[in-house]
Structure prediction request, 213 residues.
Amino acid sequence: MYYNPVEVIETNDWRVILTKSISKLNINNPLVITSRGNIIRNDLTNIFNKRVLFSDVENNPTFESCQRAIDISENSKYDGVIALGGGSVMDTAKTVMAAIGNGIFSITDLLSDKLNFTNRIPAIFIPTTHGTASEVTMWGTIWNMTEKRKYSIAYPELYPDVSILDGSLTLSLPLELSITTVLDALSHCFEAIWNKNANQKSTDYAIEAIMRQ
Prediction:
């Protein structure tokens, strides 16, 4: 059975679609999780109030960096999450969605407890790299550098509502990073084909994705 609730929108003007999506989801006070570079490149301070921008995101997000994002969301009135960036930004955003959705503001507790969402928060994800597909999944990955261990968080409530795909956002990637993220996406396609849980639908999608690359 194939299931994916994310509305995927391809566009040449992500700002227009973002505005429409915010209105459609009735988001009035979003927390915007992004990177410092994206704030500058995409002029985000002219789109959002500086106070709603969180950019202290580490590559391969750690417990500490996710906790900083969660701390920002605690005792707030954020009613939506917008993630604009690569996989690390989107994974961080999912920990914030989980924190607000459960009223649990400790990354350790979020990853060790079975969560029961009492308040699902709407989310819009806008990827700026090619490889992670975090914008259409419920999974997030967080690293505990003390334990040298990778943790995952995965709940249906962590699917974004909307994924906005605008190829122009990838043009600022350094060539090396652009190549590695494309290869990452390609490897995911092959993994989907030989996965023991593969089905005809997932295989068809994987082959189509390989052909497009």
Observations:
- The chain is about 40% helix and 15% strand.
- The longest helix spans residues 175-194.
